[in-house]
Design brief:
The protein has helices at residues 12-16, 18-27, 47-61, 82-95, 110-123, 152-160, 168-184; strands at residues 2-7, 30-37, 69-73, 99-102, 129-132, 144-147, 193-198. It is α/β, with parallel strands linked by helices. It has a single domain (2-198), classed as LmbE-like (Rossmann fold, 3-Layer(aba) Sandwich), CATH 3.40.50. It has a 7-stranded mixed beta sheet, with helices on both faces. The termini are far apart.
Length: 229
């Protein structure tokens, strides 16, 4: 299968989608990666220098998955500009993925919201889209979980490649988010999970057969603890 992950900014794929993509890569799927904006607003360097630095950080951070495409759209300014949609559309049509992974339309950042809408409009009813969790899970109801415990250290290393972003804070973020989602599946402490949302629509009423198996069920027993509780 061909999987296309599209993040709004450099480091978004690493933070929100890296675990699932790593597992899909190990499964043998072809992984394609794209970063929509140039990231020029996220740091103290000049915009020109920051674009260069963040592109290098992203290339290194995603190196275990593949080489990313950079659409070089203006950071913080994604919108109704026809060129923004056209660049995204050309990429999707070039790759012809079986599944796309991107941000949720209710995420915290305007670029995340707009990119989500752009991708949804482009693919219509031709390609299923899986939406990554929002920042801290706010306004997000997942319906697919994936255990990423075996690849969590690789995910941490990928996030740490973004030195311009003071990545220690994002390591703390993913530890909280991914351990909480794992606990929701009653996995023991020390496990991690990512979660996603898929909106069923014709003809993609069920895409579970395309995805890795969710975490195993661990019942909740008072006398015999086998999970988080």
């Amino acid at each position: 299968m061909k999987i296309l992950a599209i993040g709004a900014h450099p480091d978004d794929i690493e933070i929100f989608m890296f675990g699932l993509l790593s597992i899909l890569k190990l499964r043998g799927d072809k992984i394609f990666l794209a970063v929509a904006t140039d990231g020029c607003q996220g740091g103290n360097l000049s915009k020109k220098e920051l674009i260069k630095v963040r592109k290098k950080e992203t290339t290194v951070g995603l190196s275990t998955l593949g080489k990313p495409y950079f659409l070089n759209l203006p950071d913080g300014q994604l919108g109704d500009n026809l060129n923004h949609k056209l660049k995204s559309k050309n990429l999707v049509y070039k790759i012809e993925p079986d599944i796309i992974i991107t941000h949720h339309k209710k995420d915290y950042h305007s670029d995340h919201k707009i990119l989500s809408n752009i991708i949804s409009e482009i693919v219509g009813h031709y390609i299923p889209v899986i939406y990554a969790e929002t920042m801290m899970g706010i306004n997000f109801i997942p319906n697919y979980y994936i255990d990423i415990s075996d690849v969590f250290e690789i995910k941490k290393k990928a996030v740490m490649c973004h030195l311009s972003q003071k990545p220690d804070r994002f390591i703390n973020l993913i530890k909280i988010m991914n351990s909480y989602r794992s606990a929701q599946c009653n996995a023991p402490i020390g496990n991690y999970a990512e979660c996603y949302s898929f909106e069923r629509s014709f003809p993609f009423s069920d895409i579970t057969k395309f995805l890795p198996s969710p975490p195993k069920i661990r019942p909740f027993y008072i006398k015999n603890q086998i999970g988080f509780l």
